[in-house]
Every structure is written in structure tokens, then in C-alpha cells.
Amino acid sequence: MRRGPALAASTAAQPLDYLDFVRAKILDLPPLGVPVAANDVHPILKPHQQALVRWAVAGGRRAIFAAFGLGKSLMQLEIMRQLGAQLGGRQLIVVPLTVLIEFKRDAAMLGMSPIFIRSTAEIAIAAEPGPSGQLYLTNYESVREGKIDLSLFNACSLDEASCLRGFGGTKTFREFMRLFDGMQYKFVATATPSPNEYVELLAYAAFLEIMDVGQAKTRFFKRNSEKADELTIHPHKADEFWLWVNSWAAFVQRPSDLGFSDEGYELPELDVRWHEVPADHAVAGADKSGQGLLLKKDAIGLVDAAREKRDSLGARIEKLMEIRAEDPAAHRIIWHDLEAERAAIERAIPNVASVYGNQELGQREKTIIRFSDGEIQELAAKPVLAGSGCNFQRHCHWAVFLGIGFKFNDFIQAIHRIQRFLQTHRVRIDLIYSEAERAVRRVLEEKWARHKETVVRMSEIIRTYGLGLAGARDVLARTVATETAPAVEGDSWRVWNADTVIQTAALPADSVGLIVTSVPFGNQYEYSPSYNDFGHTDDLDHFFGQMDYLTPELLRVLQPGRRMAVHVKDRVVPSGLTGLGFRTIEPFHARCIAHYQRHGFAYLGMITIVTDVVRENAGTYRLGWTEQCKDASGMGVGLPEYLLLFRKPPSDRSNGYADVPVVKGKPDLEIVDTGEIIRWDSKRADDLVKGMKARPVGGTGYSRARWQTDACSMWRSSGDRVLTPEDLVGKPFKQIYRLFRGWSYASVYDHDGHVALVEAMEARWSLPVDFALMPAQSWHPDVWTDVARMLGANTVQSAKGREEHLCPLPFDIVDRAVLNWSNPGDVVFDPFGGLLSVPLRAVKHGRRGWATELSEKYFKDGVMLLREQDAGRATASLFDLLAEETMEAAE
């Protein structure tokens, strides 16, 4: 992914205008290849094939996702021919061995003589390439095992590149990313990238060096904070995502998508027949408590599905033979997944030909070619071996799936070995499954439906905008906010639905008494579809480049001597980005401190806010108990949140006091002898207290006791005794949590005793797995362990069925900041308002609340909460009650 030319100038002495900075974020994918004249493309190619070849060669790094039968192999060969003619040197196409013969046949039509190689040594045997280059073919295994020196080639194409779909988790992906890194001309081609699996598309983009996977996840997807790597596309980012995909990948379902005639390209009708065989309920087994089951449960997991396949094999073979009997002489392909299924097929059908994993590659290739040419009547194969690239349509239009599974891509690939353009027969598909696999069928049909919907969407995009981004840039540019917005106001609050840089610049200087905000966590999340969004940045440097426009305005509007509190959290860096093989931590809070100091804020320190390590592990998969047992050297720690404290220097720096100090009145005093109440505002009052002639009146003013607590004093208590597991077993989790917290505060901390207590609870099956029941509690006031994570605007959002904020700022943090560091009547400002929690709580505590928020959805919901509070519908008791209910549910 490349930024526009203007952004590159930001490193020069003259900084960019802010709106130029924002506009430079608009997706820009410049051509990296060489132009091809229309009359230079081989005349044997159809018009749609010629258009795709010219687009791909000019782009230099492109993906061709052309439907089955549109000539994907021929297009790849022509792309390599064009590059060879212009660049000379060597070009390479990596193919599955099963389609090698197809490529050689197509190459002959183009007058090309590709050389098949399995090692670098075989390149040396061949003659040096002439001025028009030399094309080589190889198989995936040879590349993956490092047998081919890729530095000898200037261009490559991966046929059936769906091998990359296992992003990050397969040896093929990791090796191909490393081996092809930096090659100038790269292409991928597959007929069925799975639109249901976004990570597959991101893997193709990463291989082509269009955009890093982590960056693409941040730009387009909502992270599931409970499950790592579960991606859901932001509804407001869907159009932009598919326009971006269309800029480097061509999803072409038929020639008319590109404006050409569909004559001769009508896809044959598909006749799908489902066959359910009864499950053997005699082996239903037992539930977790040991109670015998009368009926088998649905096989909804991979283990259950595999077990059910074994149990139902006899019934499924019987159904297969029944289906075959309808036309014993027909040519058929029988798809299966297990070796036991292959053995059963061979026993039932002695004349069937089979291909399998440990078969000699030459024999496997010969069998597939003979079936493709009609010399073999029936073929048994796994989709993973023969489901990609093979063309069986000339002599076969009938496939039987002996079983079904969850792998949709393998399934759809297998179907399209025979349902292809130029197939002259109606295609029949029989799918056999067990009664206990109804859930598997349901999942498969849902994925198939989503696949069809996405294919239609991509056809619409390419029909509307054509190939590339040229037609879509104006659409994308409309998401740039350029002006201030009118204020929405209520009782003591004023908020703006606008870009925070533009709106903050319009606020009066020295008008804000306190700034409290939860800054976007770099480019970790995006909150709106606008390019003004701070999360819509390429990396941390780019993020802080945008912050450079905001922070000087924050310093300007803050009153001299007053404070800014910034809520942040460090970030986990995935192992795929570190290159180290394990996750590391980006010290985001440290970057923030340096940033604000650079712009003139004085750093005062930070408050640590403890988080739940068990819940955090669910979101990052880096702190797992199992992984700790495997290798403790890789174990990190739970990441706390921080409240960074900054101050704008006062006008008078001789004593350090703010121009308008945050004043806290001392408590009233009661004269011991007379009972007279006096104000604690003189040296006489100090002397009376020291002489024990007066004492503070509880509940009035800011007490010395509270000051000592706020000034990092220790909480000590005698305590009754250490809790034992017997005290806790059988009690509700919420009660255990509160008892433990009370004991933790009242006792000298004993780490070994803490661990022993928790282990004893686990031994009695009384330890939940989804949250930390007895976390370490802190007695230190700068470590906040009692923040109610559920007490915030998201609680209200969730209760009302609205979209929750990605990184909500808990009310507890806002409350403490507002009460500690502002005066009644002060303006408390949040430049990243979100659900407007800061003005909501500021008004509640007698201050005035201001905020800006870019997201229209969050802004409208936040305004609703403010207006409800104005009307008295969101009272303190209601929030307290709601927090109590949600805490009980969580505990």
C-alpha cells in the first residue's frame, strides 16, 4: 500500500496542510508494471482475456480471480510472454503438478516452449534466455523446499494461489512470503478465492506487497476483543474494502463484467441432491456427567464430525452404490476426505482409479490426465489433491461427495472441476451425509449462500468502476471532513460532530480547565468511515504525524498550569510482524509521553489500571496457561492501562501554581471545648489542631486522611485471618470475588499463599475459565484495580441493542480525574469523545463538558445519553444499579 505523493513531502521542512495530510490517505495504488499495446496481445486470446492481461502487466502486481473456464491459464502464460518480450530474462509460473499438462497445451497455442524444472541445477542445464525471455514452470513443493533460486527470475505467477490462504499458519505461506519478497513482478491466479475468508484475501495482498495484513485488518475490520484474529468487516468500511480489493484483484465471473459478450460462456445448470443416511444411535455415548445418550448429538465440531464420518461409513458407501446404480456406465468423480473412505470405495468399486497423498507424483499425474481425457470411467480423490486446477469437464458431469465437511473452499473447488464454462451437460452433484451431520450441512449451505452474494457484489463493483481505482477515487474522497460543525448543546454541555483537529482549532485559547481523553490506540482501530479518523493510518509514525496537528491545539486551549489526562494501553505486536516467531509489546504509552513532551506538555507521571489477565488472553492468545506450560520463557504479562498525566506550564513559573488553581477546601473544624464550628483557613486553625484543641468535622472538605491516601500512602488493616478454600467452596462467584478482594486489601500480600488458595479452588472445580476470580488486588493508589469495567456508556449501548464503542473509557477513570483535577464550573474537554462519556460525567459532577467526535453513530448515541441525563432519566442510582446488575452477571 502506497501513500499519495503529498504525504511523502511531510518529511520535508515545510509541513503539509492538515487537509492535504488527510487527503493523502486516500487509497492510491500506482501502476508498477509496463504498458502493453492492444495489438501486441496474442490474437488467440478472447477480448476479456486481452483486457485482463493488459491490466495485470501494467499493474505489475495483480491478482486474477477469474471464474472457471474463463482462461486463467492462458492469461498467465500471456502475461509472462509480454514481460519476457519487454524485459528479457527468466519468468516463472508455479503450478500444481495436476495441471502441468494443461499449461503445456495452452503454451503451445501461444508459440511458447516452457521448461519444467524441479531445482536450480536444471535451470543451468537450459540455454540462456534470449531477448524475448524464457518461461519456466515448477511445482509448489520445489519452491517451498527452497530448491529453486528465485533471484534468477524477474517475474512470477502462482497458479491456484489458494495455497496462500493459510496465512501465518502454514509453511507454504511463510516460505513464499520470504522467498518472493521484493520480486518486482508478481501475480496470483485462482478461480475461487473465498470471499467468506477475509484473511485469504489479505494474504494475497500481503504476498503481492499491496498492503501488510496487520495494516489491512486495522483499516477495514472490527476486532473481536474476546477472540483473537476473528474478523468482522466494519459495515461502514465494506464498500471501501471491496473497492480496495478491486484496485489490485479482478473478480470476473463472466466476460460481460468487463463489457464483453457472454456468448459461449453460459455456466451449466447445477443439479444438487442431498442424501441423508441414518446415524447409528447405538454408539451415541454419554454426556459429561456420564449419563448415557439416547440419540447422537449434532457433529458440530471437527472432532465430532470426523468421528461421525467413521461411524457412518458403511451407510454412506451403501448410499453411494445405490446412486451409481442409476447409471453404471457414467463417468463420475467420487470425492472423499479420509483414507478409510478411499479404502472402502476401492473395495466396493474394484475398477475405480484412485489418487492419494503418498502416491508417486508421476503416477498421480498420469491417473488424473487419463480421467480428464475420458480413458478412466471413475476416479476417487480428495479435494485437497485434485480439487484445484484440474479440468474434468470434457468427459464428466457427475460428482458424488461421499461425505461433507466444513472446508468450503475445497468443496466449491471440487464442484467446479466439472461445472465450468464450455461444459455442455447439466452438472449433477450428489452429497451424502449422516443424520448427525445436519449442522455441517447447514454451515456449508450458509457459506455457499454468502459466497454467491459476494461474487454478485464484486461483479457489480467491476461493472460500475472497471478495473483499478480510477473510477472509485472520487467516491472515496467524499469521506474527508473539511469544516467545523455546529455545536449541539444542553445543560452545561457542548459537543461537536466534527474532525477534532479542525474543531479544536476553532476553540478559544485558554478556555479548557481539564482535558480527559482516551486517545486512539495508534492504528489499532478505526472508528468511522472518514479518512479524518486517526485510526485510519498506516503505522504509528503515520498516526503520530496526524497527532502533530492536534496536540499543539490542545496545548493552546488548555488553561495555563492545568492538567491533561490521557488514557492509553500498550499494544501487542503479532509474531508475523516481528519476524521473531513470538509476540512482542509496542510501548505505546512511552511513544505518547515523548509525543506530548515534544509539543510542550510537562509530564507528571502515570496511574496504572490493572486489567483481567484471563480476559486479555482471550483477546490476544499470548498468555495462555498451556503455552506457559510448554515454554515459560515466552510468557509475557497482562497489559495494564495507563492514565498519563501532563500539565501545561503556568504563565507565572516562579511558584508553579496554575493561573486558575484547582482549589480544594479543607474540612470544617469543631472546637473541642465549646463545640464551635470554624473554617480551617488560618494558621490559628492549624495550631488548634496540632494542640488537639480542634478536630476535623467528618464529611466536609478535602481531609488530611484523603490527601494522605491520594499522596501514595499505604492501606493497612489487622485483618481477621487468611481465607481458606473451605470458606469459599459452594459460594457464588460474585461473593467469592468480593470476599477475596476484602481479604486482599486487609492483609500483607503473600504470593505463595495467593497461588495456593487459587490452586485449591481449582482442585475443587470452583475456578471459572473465562475471567480471573481472585486477581491480585493493589493497596497502592496509583494502581487502580477496582475500576468497574462494565460501568460505562457501552453498558447503556448494549442494553439498548446499539453498537458498542471499540475502546470505551470507563466512568470510574473519568470521575476520579474530574473530581481530582478540576474546579466546579470548569470546562472539561475530550477531543476524542466517542460515546461522550467525559461530558456526561463532567456535568454529573458540576462541571461543563465539551467534546468532539467524528463518528456520527457514536455522536448521536452520546447526545442521546446527555439529553437523558438532562431530563433526569439517567440518575446516579440508575447507573449504580445497572453497574451492579452487570457486575453480578459478569461475576
From TrEMBL:
GO aspect biological process, one term: methylation
Lineage of producing organism: Bacteria, Pseudomonadati, Pseudomonadota, Alphaproteobacteria, Sphingomonadales
Alphabetic keyword roster: Methyltransferase, Transferase
Keyword Methyltransferase: yes
Name under which the protein is recorded: site-specific DNA-methyltransferase (adenine-specific)
InterPro entries xrefs: DNA_methylase_N4/N6 (IPR002941), P-loop_NTPase (IPR027417), SAM-dependent_MTases_sf (IPR029063)
Organism listed in the record: Sphingomonas colocasiae
Gene3D superfamilies with a match to the protein in the record: P-loop containing nucleotide triphosphate hydrolases (3.40.50.300), Vaccinia Virus protein VP39 (3.40.50.150)
One MF annotation (Gene Ontology) recorded for this entry: methyltransferase activity
TM ranges: none
Family matches, as SUPFAM superfamilies: P-loop containing nucleoside triphosphate hydrolases, S-adenosyl-L-methionine-dependent methyltransferases
Pfam families: N6_N4_Mtase (PF01555)
Catalytic activity: a 2'-deoxyadenosine in DNA + S-adenosyl-L-methionine = an N(6)-methyl-2'-deoxyadenosine in DNA + S-adenosyl-L-homocysteine + H(+)
Top-level taxon in the UniProt lineage: Bacteria
Enzyme Commission number(s) of this protein: 2.1.1.72
Domain DNA methylase N-4/N-6, chain residue ranges per copy: 513-860
